Fold these 2 entries.
Entry 1:
Amino acid sequence: MLLYYSTLLFEHAFFVIMKDYFQFSKYNTNLKTEIIAGTTTFLATMYIIVVNPSILSETGMSFNGVLTATILVSSFSSIMMGIYANNPIVVAPGMGLNAFFTYSAVLGMGIKWEVALGAVFWSGIIFLILSIFKIRTMIVQAIPKQIRYAISAGIGLFITFIGFVNAKFIVDNPATLVSIAKLDPILITFLIGLFVTSILVIKKINGALIFGIIFTTILSIPIGRIYGDASVINFGVPTLVTWNGIFSMPDFSVILKLNLLDSLSLSLIPIIFAFLFTDLFDSLSTFIGVAEAANLVDENGEPRNIRKSLIVDAVSTTISGLLGSSPGTSYIESATGVEEGGRTGMTAVVSGLLFLPFMFFSPIMSVVPAIATAPALILVGVFMMKPVLKINWLDFDDAIPAYLGMILIPLTYSITQGIIWSFISWTIIKVALGKYNEITPMLIIIDIFAIITLFL
């Protein structure tokens, strides 16, 4: 009996401490909402567990080794974001950065993957120094609000585009670049999932995106078994929701395999620089986009706890090099959890903890097909379009740079390109009009690095 009441007392005390630490009352949330939000974010980002090793393994790295590294980076970084920065943002190895690591640094320049990991580590160290001395915070504050709104909307369009591409609803076309695919059982399944998930969202059902993912996954089971053929969108495998078992042991073969000395050679400086500024622009745009869409801002209108969040992002890049992965960065898919009501770091902690079991149960990841998560990504795009109403469309010197940033993100398939061209166009237009007071010294510095990044 004493043990029973002691346990109850401990649980109550733990909950009170946790509620106070994450400031549930201040942000008008509760534990149940944060758990649902964290689970939703995890489901929207869990694809990285398989996608990241599939890309990095082309360098000669062990697929299972990178998978383990991806899980460790994602879990540790997300938990740190939640506990230290109290922000509902997942941090994991970044898409785009892993492609640069593989196709540009290793395969393109012939750099050994161990040396490339060293470059990732050193870029993280520089990143951390910039964050500690508030230089990155100054960069955030130098970004005009009109561009911030545009970045949020542009990322929304980008996420929607990714959702449609993942579902193979939008496909490439030699004549028109992109077009809509012909209806087949897979597309019909996706559309049913999209409309069901939309209705759940409209009715404000808690966990709507999770239920939508589960529903669409179940709906996908007959494809390739009873009707249809998923070979075209599923790496030659005719069935979706393919069961590959449950258990597999983690592989630690790529941990601490980085080459720190050779990665400091002069020829590697451009690679370190590219990692640094690509990660910089990606993480800044994510913080700004999520903050503007969900009103996660402080009393000055800046993204909440931005300095701490940027430090976490920098630490994530540093440990990525140590553990054997491309740089970690903040994930825009975190907006899925925010839309489910996640407002504190508990959302990120829940997501981070959910990564860990897949060190041993990674085959389960194959159960959820891309068409099941696509509806959630598309609807998040809708949510993130809200700030577009704040753009000053009547003043073209504000509207044109904002529009370029917003539209180029999805059209170039790059958040970085959108934000770079919005910066450059803003500066050129304001200078031409003599509005020098709207251009800060830090913005000019950003422009210079943006131009250098374009050439890299």
Entry 2:
Amino acid sequence: MKITHHALLLSAGLSLAGISQAAETITIATVNNNDMIRMQRLSKVFEEQHPDITLNWVVLEENVLRQRLTTDIATQGGQFDVLTVGTYETPLWGAKGWLEPMKDLPASYDLEDIIPSVRQGLSVKDTLYALPFYGESTVTYYRTDLFKQAGLSMPEHPTWTQLGEFAAKLHHPDQGQYGMCLRGKAGWGENMALLTTMANAFGARWFDEQWRPELTSPEWTAAANFYVNTLKNYGPPGVSSNGFNETLALFNSGKCAVWVDASVAGSFTTDKEQSRVVDSVGFAAAPVEVTDKGSSWLYAWSLAIPATSKHKNAAKTFTTWATSKEYIQLVAQKDGITNVPPGTRTSTYSDAYLKAAPFARVTLEMMKHADPTHPSAKPVPYVGIQYVTIPEFQAIGTSVGKLFSAALTGQTSVEQALAAAQSTTEREMKRAGYPKQ
């Protein structure tokens, strides 16, 4: 009865504002990152503009979100109308027909304004399956005041070895100051995102051209030893529990001399309400080592509509609004230009933004530098920098992430972790039928 009533009202051109029973509710699953929490707050503006659409939010921690969404979409559960997904899931799920193609966008959306590498990462055969909310690469954050006091200077393009040397000189745990903070929390999108880019910089690759895992290679061994030893010697306590949000909180509270992580953190480290170190944050390129191939990741948290959604039009209206130039202007107006979602639109990088946001230039440089089709100095059969774009990687990356987390806590040695990672990955790939002809 409601559907008929709703349809009659629409055909009569009557306003739905006062008729709550006709309002559509769309359920949005998103991650508990600051930019998404801001989107939730500012979406009151959307609801005022669209009184016929009500938003229901499900905000989850990163690992939990990924697990919930993967289960829901694979089983066609249909719990959500809008999914917050990344450049890993989007092409895989789009190819399976699990996501709605993002076609017939309004001209005002200006699709050509989306940074080409981001658009490409969310497409299958030139069909877009998600709209990017913010894009990111990797940046080195450091404390300019501590560097100055110690007579050190950060190169524009540092190496991991140099960062390790700086960390050793700036580590004063008795004063609550740690040389280097990095992600240690297990997860393919948590510690493995960071560690895979580090391994790439050391010249490693996940698989050779025949899809054979290479996790015990000299390059992986060198990267993993650097990662574990640096964090054990110069990292904060309890590092195996720290993901992106926890490490950001440590840096903002003044406890980290050097931190390598997502470029999206730039606006948070320079926000007086969140950060105690706003006046002494420096920004440099992502560290390289023997190569710069795959040394900085490319990722876009994006909004997609599952094929199972019963409210596709309303969901599309919302996703278009939240990823539009209009939304970026709204954030600039309400929260200041430095807080706009970065890394998705060329128009964001105006002179005013570059001038106001000290991290903007290096973010753009790293976004342009990242090339998911050439993630390693050696040839590879896969696409993806901090992950491998195959369905099996989510399980592989998370189980390998647990092994490295155990190496950080001393439960296992680096060599044992690498050997176990190699055999786990070999087993998973064999079970999945690789190499595929």
